[in-house]
Design the sequence.
């Protein structure tokens, strides 16, 4: 059976959420944006590009230009590197070994789908020696679109797709794309009480990639993907999620 496994990065492969958020807020301020709502879960899409655009719009009344978005991405990258240079970023237990195991098997293909911008993502993946297509918030502003882009880049067809993540936005993207799902974390709280504990892990050492991770959330437990999710266009086309 051919399987594509699509990994989120922050909080899933790496304990990078805190330094990323610190760098993110700093990059927003470097962009001249001071009115910042840091309740990240309240934004419609959990990606750097979407949140940057919303904060920019709130502060200026306009959408950022491509040059302004690139400036923000560059500053995010620079601040993340500076903030993690001394101590580095810890991996989720077993992450690198799990990726190596998958790379050695002809049954598995690996891809990465992250809400982070491309430049900072490259820095995070480098220590993992990660191999596979990478879709980021530099290509799409909708989280579901980032996952769809990763699946598209991976080719296929595959007998099944398994998404791996640590947040409710990851579950929503998995449901939207018809993917199975592995949750990474200490409790089911980020996903909801309905989430099966058989799908939850604190270490990749305990994950059997051949297991069935089908999700069947009760009605209303997973927020539906936005109506505009059907406007997805894979690269190199310009996706209308930027409109």
Sequence:
């Amino acid at each position: 059976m051919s399987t594509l496994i699509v990994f989120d990065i922050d909080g899933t492969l790496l304990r990078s959420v805190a330094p990323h958020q610190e760098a993110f807020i700093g990059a927003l301020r470097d962009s001249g944006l001071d009115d910042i709502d840091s309740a990240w879960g309240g934004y419609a899409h959990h990606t750097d590009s979407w949140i940057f655009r919303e904060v920019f719009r709130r502060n200026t009344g306009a959408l950022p230009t491509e040059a302004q978005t690139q400036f923000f991405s560059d500053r995010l990258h620079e601040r993340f590197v500076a903030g993690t240079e001394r101590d580095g970023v810890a991996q989720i237990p077993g992450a690198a070994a799990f990726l190596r195991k998958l790379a050695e098997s002809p049954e598995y293909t690996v891809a990465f789908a992250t809400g982070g911008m491309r430049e900072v993502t490259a820095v995070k993946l480098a220590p993992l020696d990660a191999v596979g297509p990478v879709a980021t918030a530099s290509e799409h502003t909708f989280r579901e679109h980032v996952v769809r882009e990763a699946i598209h880049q991976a080719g296929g067809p595959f007998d099944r797709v398994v998404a791996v993540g640590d947040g409710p936005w990851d579950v929503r993207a998995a449901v939207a794309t018809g993917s199975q799902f592995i949750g990474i974390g200490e409790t089911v709280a980020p996903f909801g009480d309905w989430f099966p504990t058989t799908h939850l892990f604190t270490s990749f050492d305990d994950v059997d990639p051949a297991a069935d991770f089908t999700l069947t959330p009760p009605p209303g437990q997973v927020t539906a993907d936005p109506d505009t999710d059907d406007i997805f266009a894979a690269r190199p086309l310009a996706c209308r999620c930027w409109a």
